[in-house]
Design a protein that fits this description.
mainly alpha, 3 helices, 92% helix, transmembrane, cell membrane, membrane, MrpF/PhaF-like, sodium:proton antiporter activity
Length: 95
């Protein structure tokens, strides 16, 4: 099972490389944030696979930390986006 886990981890690494294109090309901040979420989710999967292949349970803990950080980053992005939209609407109403 170890070679299978390592092969799947390599495929996931290629997915991260493909996601870099969306980070650099954009076109919006939401596209970039979704690509960052892809990185976080894929990193969790890679850590789980490597932990399973190598029998290192500490990697499972690291995967949990990445999952929590990804959720916090998504919530922070949404809150900041809503705040900017509210400010823009407020400025448009004043005109």
């Amino acid at each position: 099972m170890e070679p299978l886990c390592l092969a799947m981890a390599l495929i996931l690494l290629l997915i991260i490389v493909a996601g870099l294109w969306r980070v650099f090309q954009g076109p919006t901040a939401a596209d970039r944030m979704l690509a960052a979420q892809l990185f976080g989710t894929t990193a969790v999967a890679i850590l789980l696979l490597l932990g399973q292949a190598g029998g290192v349970t500490a990697l499972w803990d690291a995967a949990l930390v990445f999952a929590l950080l990804g959720a916090v980053a998504a919530v922070t992005f949404v809150r900041r986006s809503w705040a900017r939209e509210a400010d823009a609407e407020k400025d448009n109403d004043d005109v």
